[in-house]
Amino acid sequence: MNGQFDKSTPAMVTTKSRLDSLLEDLGLDQEDKLSLSTLLQIDDQSTSDTPAVSNRDLVWGFMKKLMMVNVTARNVKCNASCDSSYDMESEISGFNLDSLLSDSTSDDVLNPLDIITAVFLCSDGFVQQELALKMSMCQFAVPLLLPNIDTQQCTLMLWALRDIVKKYRPQSLLESKGFIEERIVLAKIPMISFVRLGECSLSKSEILNKLLSNAQQYHDTFVHHNMECGDCPRKISDGLVEIAWYLPCGNKNIDIFSEPVTVANLRGDIASFILQYSFLSETSSAIFVFCDQLHLACSLLTSYKSKADIFLVSDSQNKDFDSEELKRVATEFNLTNNKIIIKSRSMNEADFVTKLQWTVRSVVEKAKVRPHIEQMADVAYELGIQVDEDFPECRNAKQNADAITSEIHDTLEYKETQLPLQGKIWKELTTLEKEECRLRNAGSENIENYKVLLQEQKKTLREKQNSYDMSKAMTCFINAISSPGIERNYFMKWMRLNLDNMSREKLSGLREQYRENSKEFKNKEVIKEIDRQLSSSSLGIEHFFREMGQIYEASVSLPEHHRSREQLQHLPRLCAELLLEGLPLELVDGDASNIPLRWVTDVLAHLHQLMSSNSKILVVTVLGVQSTGKSTLLNTMFGVQFAVSSGRCTRGAFMLLIRISEELKKVFDCDFIMIIDTEGLKSPELAQLDDSYEHDNELATLVVGLSDITLINIAMENSTEMKDILQIVVHAFLRMKEVGKKPKCRFVHQNVSDVSAHEKNLRDRKLLLEQLNEMTQAAAKMEKKENNKSFTDVMEYSPDTGNWYIPGLWNGNPPMAPVNAGYSEAVYELKKNIIQTLSECESSANNILEFQEWIRSLWNAVKYENFIFSFRNSLVADAYMRLCTEYNKWEWNFKKDMYAWVTNAETIISNYGKIVEEHDTGSIGKLLSNLKINACTKLSQGEETLLQNLTQYFKQTGAHVNLVEKYKEDFMTSAKSIRKELEKSIINQLTAAVDIRQGMRELEKIKENHTQEIEERVLELIEQCRKKNVKMTYRELDK
Ligand SMILES: Nc1nc2c(ncn2[C@@H]2O[C@H](COP(=O)(O)OP(=O)(O)O)[C@@H](O)[C@H]2O)c(=O)[nH]1
Ligand SMILES: [Mg+2]
Questions:
Q1: Is 120 exposed, middle or buried, given 0-12, 13-18 or 19+ CB atoms closer than 10 A?
Q2: Is the C or the N end of the chain the one with fewer CB within 10 Å?
Q3: Is 179's C-beta closer than 6 angstroms to any atom of ligand 1?
Q4: pLDDT in tens, 76-104
């Protein structure tokens, strides 16, 4: 910013024009226009609150506040100029009439409109769009015709307004609860213009503000006389035409107009701005001319014929009012009473505004001419008014973008034919990649063989990807983003606009349905179907980049010097350049739930090359349930443009770079801040539908792992949902600790507006910490890292500084509600905290090459994670544990029974032949086969009981069995394998017992034989002796 502002213009022209000298004073330059990357970069002013002392500071303060959608942005005042009147001297010098009555407004003070005009004059098209978008969020009027007092020219700000999209509900859709969502430059809304002729005692802008505000809530849409600095003379903004919209919300009691209305306001006297007046009279349905000196009206009406209806507005109380004159004008120009609005003496301001509203309403009802702003460009050309889009780069870019998008008729079919690599093939590849790590379905296959098989399948898929010729759309796309300079930025924007317009029609309805249905959670099938349609009909610029990534990845699998491979080598560099220019690049493809690792890492490698320094980065991430304002938070905080939408769009994570200014680089020891926006985690019910637990877990682990600070967005009253998210996050943090990273986190509680929130929620914070501790313990147990006892063991977190409360986004009732000033301020405070924390971050700031390596290893870790990982939350884990406990019981019973039986059988075997005679029982072999048959019967019975128990368990309704349904098959298989195991071991045991028994029997037989033999011998000996009748010596007997 400073670099931009400090540039002093060389003093070669001696007489500077009024405009130039003002711009110089403001530190702006028409030639060297302000760009987004300068505007968004983080410098020492981004978070400093030193009051403005110069006009340069004012301009910077205005833009800084506006980028954070702060409704107080236009309240600009230099402290230097207002403090002077309150100095100590006057306080003690007693009464001084001169000083009391003196005009303290010096010549130096700036009118807010001058600042707005100057900023628009000196910004490039992209900054203009951003400013206009933020202004319209604040419900400020935005410039339609921008004057240049030097050239006396003005410019139609068509491009600048192109980003604005509005949503409203006209009367006709009241019943159906439908709504209209339109890009405002393409919306056919009747325009009513308000102009001033000569002097006018009525404050036109203030009256307009009242006209557009409902009774409960006045809002300054237009800058007016009674605002801070609103009374300072305008230096360069006369001739400015601003517009604002009134959009109904569909509630009769609130809506001032039941149909949308555009209100245009010309600054200055029309007598000096005939060009603007002619434009308005060609494009408006009616023009309200505020005028005190009615004779002037005569000359106007005679010299300029207007297509629009003219209404005269005057104040009968003003000194120039002349009723005779009025009569004359009325008769001469056939003005009926309804065309003349006089604020009479008896009328107070409220009555007068009501009368005006009534008149406007009747005009709107009859309005036939409803050109949209894009069509107004034709009028501008005829009148010689410039249009801000009318230069070659923008036109070429539009042509290129139109050439691509005009081919899109059916989104699904288009994606299949023009972007074929990312569809089914990429999903199959993902499955294979994960299977290669997890080996869930390896079965009995040899692991090495199985892996080879998977690799071959992968190779085939890559070959299939390579077999496609590059589609026409992708060729055009890549050509267009290869175009030099500003043209490709315009191209990207046109693409975004075109694609957005195309899908809006279809998506906004679907999103609404999705939200309705998911709120009540009535019909799972319906939600599933809507979800499917949403994802198939969404087509954004990210799909083109995704395809580019796949084309590149596929080409890398070709041999080194293959021609197509060499032709595609430049793609990562192209993408890196765009990343530097602020493109949000898809990191995780949410549809396939995978990272195109080679692509992402190569892009980062090129990024490193592009930056001359050592390219260190710090990473900020946001996590939370979908549609809870995460993207809105980041956009407000950093002025970036992540897709803001309700319902689901693309799932996944996008990364974006923000520059750090030269001076701050040293403090931060870092060149860029990377911001990662995730597309929300699902609520438990919704996650159940499409089994996205695993996906959410993977996403959370990855982004937490990548970030230096994680913002955890909590925007719901529903604490179970919150717990659910926390559970995922805690698991993710725990895993990070294992790899030696202890990230920081901030809990962001949205929609909490009470000033005492921080105090009051002391107990809640304690409770939160307790819950977090509990979860940490549970998670630690599950992950077998039980030395983690409390949340702070895994995270840097303090309940006092780790919790931020942010009030609701809108102040009032959309669509007419401006952004709540409290929202913007709270986000600013959080931003300061984050930047402070980042600057203190000891250099975990990876340089990009390390970061790239870190992504790779994290993602691999995620891919290798198995079982425990697929638990999304405590609920599932709990249900699973319960099932396990039950199952173990059954299994134990089964085993116990079998052990008892085996012991019994063993006894029978060991007793074999002891009690009964052999011939009674038959051979031992027969006994064995009998026992085996018995064992099988017994085993089958046991298995049957186990399976029955399981089936029974899954039939019950409590215990969240539906959450573990998918594990049923695993348990069934486990039951079967237990039976097999038991069978094997029982048969072994029986056989062994029989073997032993048989051995024993042999032994017994031998022993028996021996005894018999000895006995026989002894007897024989005795007999012999007896026969010999010889007295034998003992020695002989011993023998
Ligand atoms: N009423 C209200 N709406 C909000 C708030 N924050 C965001 N929104 C709206 O909620 C919608 C979804 O916001 P988005 O940032 O896309 O949510 P994300 O899905 O979490 O990124 C947008 O239309 C926002 O305007 C808030 O605090 N209050
Ligand atoms: Mg989002």
A1: buried
A2: C
A3: no
A4: 877 654 444 444 554 555 676 766 666 55
| Lookup: tokens for 715 | 């925007």
Answer whether 809 contacts ligand 1 (Cβ < 6 A): yes
CB atoms within 10 A of CB 1011: 10
Considering every ligand atom shown, identify the ligand nearest to the alpha carbon of residue 645 and give its number. Answer: 1
The arithmetic mean of pLDDT across residues 980-999, rounded, is: 87
State the DSSP code for 333: T
> Helical H runs in 482-562?
486-520, 524-537, 541-556
Ligand 1 within 6 A of CB of 678:
no
The vertex-316 CA angle with 277 and 323, nearest 5°, equals 90
Check: CB of residue 274 under 8 Å from CB of residue 305.
no
Whether the CB-CB separation of 502 and 508 falls below 8 Å is answered with no
Peptide bond into 815 cis (omega under 30): yes
Ligand 1, atom nearest to 645 Cα:
16
User: What are the residues whose beta carbon lies below 5 Å from ligand 2 (ion)?
Assistant: 631
Q: Does the CB atom of residue 411 touch ligand 1 within 6 A?
A: no
CA atoms of 597 and 751, how far apart (whole Å): 37
Ligand nearest to the CA of 511: 1
Q: Return the ligand 1 atom nearest residue 715 CA.
A: 27
Return the number of other C-beta atoms located less than 10 Å from residue 715's C-beta. 22
Q: Can you list the positions of beta strands (E) in 123-207?
A: 142-148, 153-156, 165-168, 180-183, 191-197
pTM for the full model? 0.81
Does ligand 1 come within 6 angstroms of the Cβ of 639? Answer: no
| Segment 296-309, tens digit of pLDDT | 888 887 777 788 88
Give the closest residue (by CA) to ligand 1 atom 18: 627
